[in-house]
Amino acid sequence: MPVDLNNAQPLAWDSATLDRDTKEMLDNLQPNILRAHVREHLSVLFIRFNDSADGRRFLREVATTHMKSARRHLEEVRDFARSGRRGTPYVGIGVSKAGYRDLGHSVEELRLFGDRVFRDGMKRRVAEVNDPAVTEWEAAYQREIHVVLLIGDAEAAPVARLRDEILGRLPESARVLGEESGQGMRNPAGDGIEHFGYVDGRSQPLFLADEVEREPRKRWNPAFPLANVLVADPFAPSRDRHFGSYFVFRKLEQNVRAFKEIERDLADSLGLEGADRDRAGAMLVGRFKDGTPVTSKAKAGGGPVANDFTFDSDDGAKCPFSGHIRKTNPRFEDIRHVLMARRGQTYGERADQPWDDAPPETRPSAEVGLLFMAFNSSLENQFEFTQRDWANNADFLNPATGHDPVIGQGDRDIKVTFPKVWGKPEVSLPQGQVAQTVTMLGGEYFFMPSLAYLRAL
Ligand code: HEM
Questions:
Q1: Residue nearest to ligand 1 atom 22, measured at CA
Q2: 438 touches ligand 1 (CB under 6 Å)
Q3: Where do the H-state alpha helices sit in 272-377?
Q4: pTM to 2 decimals?
Q5: Which of 164, 238, 361, 369 could cross-link 254 (Cys pair, CB 3.0–4.6 Å)?
């Protein structure tokens, strides 16, 4: 039975009755797509080949020696839960449109990729999403990147070892154009956070039955069909069993100092005092620093980070329509196909504690940020739609609600208001939108092919 990507039931991957085609799908799918792979330590390598035979040989060798399948990854996670046995590092490969061409695929063949945004590449999409001009990107991203290689693990040493080993195999004809290092950050509760100090990575589309079953799901259904992230791999032997995913990579620098000043100034201008001051930042993000959704509670705190909520009973008096998580997932039933599987990681070292209340002057203003990464079945209808039609759109849902204060790009020329008291109609005087504190430094669109394709190169 061919794998049905639109099946609404989450995948019971461990079931004894799992059919052969689904097993083969999981045996040929890269890990980290259907379920996040641990990547506290992450090395991201951007490579350019200059000889197609060399490039093919390199990718085939990496795939056969170092890459595990999605099924192997899920088994490792299960075994770790049962016996504490550590899994193996994650190695992922994404190929850009230019990379496929360099590996010998013709322009006609590339049309088999249904996503025209992938076929364009990120450099040609700058105007669509209001990105900085390519000439302003970091040098490595201005070049023609063929492949992204991700190496991740819970510990630093295996990543360093594997990175050296893989680079040792790199043919003379290839070049490493750039490299990023990601490193996870956690708050005292142990939750993963990003540089502004907020819990991140909590809300995700879930595809696997064991993950879905652990979630409270009275209001928001976290289960999504595989079609949100998988498409048939056009160059693999079987279109029914061999799948891949479009992968967006963006290096997003965060001016933490400026964001903390904005939080402070907004709290001052709304007259928020004491613990209420945290609501200023929560209205920008949509969640308090500890992850509590501001649409559900006026103050932070109260147990595990919730995700079982919608904005249905909130006309913007609790969570403004511009709040980052409201912009990027308004939680309507008819927009569920837009949600991507986010797999980002923070980068940059800092001496201060991102989650505490230290004054803005002590915060970094550059060199730290998010390596934004996400899996899509359509870059056009998911990542780009989210960035362009929601985050950058000041008239999102209602006129003049403003840009996404975290990731919105483009002129912020309209004035906005904020609720002064949580849940009450009283709003602030119209004020200028908060300044942009996240800057895109470069990136690319890739396709993460099936292992069946990579092994056969
Ligand atoms: C959620 C921060 C970039 C899309 C979140 C959350 C935080 C956050 C703190 C809440 C945690 C959670 O609900 O999982 C940031 C920061 C960014 C950034 C600091 C840049 C430096 C982006 C980009 C996109 C995006 C570029 C897409 C265009 C989302 C989505 C969610 C989310 C879809 C989940 C919303 C939900 O389902 O409730 N982000 N983010 N983020 N972000 Fe971002």
A1: 407
A2: yes
A3: 278-285, 324-328
A4: 0.98
A5: 369
Ligand 1 atom closest to Cα of residue 193: 9
Q: Ligand 1 pocket test: pick from 294, 311, 328, 403 the residue with the most ligand atoms within 8 Å of its Cβ.
A: 328
pLDDT in tens, 120-168: 999 999 999 999 999 999 999 999 999 999 999 999 999 999 999 999 9
Least Cα distance to 428 among 297, 268, 300 occurs for 268
What pLDDT score does 2 carry?
A: 84
Side chain identity at 420, as an amino acid letter?
Answer: K
pLDDT of residue 242: 97
Under a CB-based contact definition with an 8 Å cutoff, are residues 193 and 354 in contact?
yes
Closest by CA to 108, choosing from 241, 247, 234, is 234
CA angle 165, 31, 24 (to 5 degrees): 115
Structure token pair of residue 52: 């197609």
Q: Is the beta carbon of 324 within 6 A of some atom in ligand 1? A: yes
Residue 405's Cα: distance from chain center in Å?
Answer: 18
Q: 114 CB less than 6 Å from ligand 1? A: no
State if residue 372 touches ligand 1 by the CB under 6 angstroms criterion: yes
Q: How far is CA 389 from CA 128, 250, 324, in A?
A: 10, 18, 13
Residues in the chain: 457
Q: Is residue 377 within 6 Å of ligand 1 at its C-beta?
A: no
Q: For residue 287, which atom of ligand 1 is closest to its CA? A: 10
Beta bridge partners of 293: 287
Give me the residues paired with residue 419 across strands: 427
